[in-house]
Amino acid sequence: MKVKKTIDVRQHLLLASASRSGSPTMTIGKFKFNQQVSRNELVNMILMHEYPLSVVEHEGFRRYSHSLNPEFHIISRNTVKSDILKDYKEEKSRLMKLLGANESKVAITTDMWT
After folding, report:
1. What is the number of structural domains in the chain?
2. Taking phi first (over 0 means left), then psi (-120 to 50 degrees means alpha), and beta for anything else, what does residue 19 get?
C-alpha cells in the first residue's frame, strides 16, 4: 500500500545565514531571526519584570527558549549584567546631553512614602 505525501502550502522554507555583523540570522517566511535583537529583548524583559539575573541559568527557561528558537544562544548572568550596565551608561549619557541642552532649571524630587 502506497502512502500519498502531501505538502502543506502554509509551510515556509527555513533559511539560516549570518548578518553583516556576523550574528546568526534565520529567515522564516518574512521573519528574520537576529541573535542581537533577541539578546536585547531578553535583557529588557529581565529589567521590565525585575527578574533575577540568574533566570537565564534556570533549566526551565533554557528549555523554553530552545523550544522557541534552537538558534538562540542564551547568555550568562554576567553578560546580562554587563549589557544592563552598558545600557545604563548610554541612557545616562543621553539624558545628561538632553538636560545640558535645556536652558531652564530642572528640579528632581522623590517621595519616600510607601
Report:
1. 1
2. beta
In tens, the pLDDT along 46-68 reads: 999 999 999 999 999 999 999 98
Query: Is residue 8 domain-resident?
Result: no
Task: Give the residue from 16, 71, 15 showing the smallest Cα distance to 38.
Answer: 71
> Per the domain annotation, does 112 fall within a domain?
no
Q: Which domain holds residue 73?
A: 34-97
The answer to the question of residue 38 being in a domain is yes
HSE value, Cβ hemisphere, 13 Å, CA-based, for 77: 9
Owner of C-alpha cell 548578518: 19
- Say what the pTM is: 0.64
Residue range 22-37, pLDDT digits in tens: 766 666 666 778 899 9
